[in-house]
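Need residues for this backbone.
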């Protein structure tokens, strides 16, 4: 029985394509799990209470949809990478659960101005800014408002804070 060269070439091409498809299919869950592991490891650096609630109970979606710091309610809660978020309404909870990465606070919820210096400093959840789809939070007390310093040179502050957060949390 003679083999036809064109049939052999076609068979080889199909075999190579199937092998490539198998590699992609088996690698996808591994890549996803690796991304989840990085995010889960970073959580240890987040600004959370003992109860693992983010933003001191404020609704992360409210910052974006209402441009306001809105207190969340315990009955409307969701978890992302082991962090609990409270929401003002079931609608906000649904928005969050469909795209959580869109709403989570930058730098794990620490003061953005302090993060530009490589420091974790508490925030006032009512002192915030949403820029380019990112939620930045800031320290505020009667003697200081870190957002004022941030606003003086936001692009440079963002670059520094991003680099420092990557060193601290890996994300």
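Answer:
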């Amino acid at each position: 029985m003679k083999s036809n060269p064109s049939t052999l070439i076609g068979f080889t091409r199909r075999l190579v394509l199937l092998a490539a498809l198998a590699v992609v299919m088996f690698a996808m869950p591994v890549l996803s799990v690796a991304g989840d592991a990085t995010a889960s490891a970073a959580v240890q650096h987040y600004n959370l209470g003992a109860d693992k609630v983010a933003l001191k109970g404020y609704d992360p979606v409210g910052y974006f949809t209402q441009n306001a710091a809105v207190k969340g309610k315990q009955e409307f809660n969701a978890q992302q990478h082991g962090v609990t978020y409270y929401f003002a309404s079931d609608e906000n909870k649904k928005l969050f659960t469909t795209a959580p990465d869109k709403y989570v606070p930058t730098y794990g919820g620490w003061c953005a101005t302090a993060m530009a210096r490589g420091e974790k400093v508490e925030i006032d959840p009512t002192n915030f800014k949403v820029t380019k789809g990112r939620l930045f939070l800031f320290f505020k007390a009667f003697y200081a408002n870190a957002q004022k310093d941030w606003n003086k040179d936001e692009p440079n502050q963002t670059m520094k804070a991003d680099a420092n957060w990557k060193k601290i949390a890996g994300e």
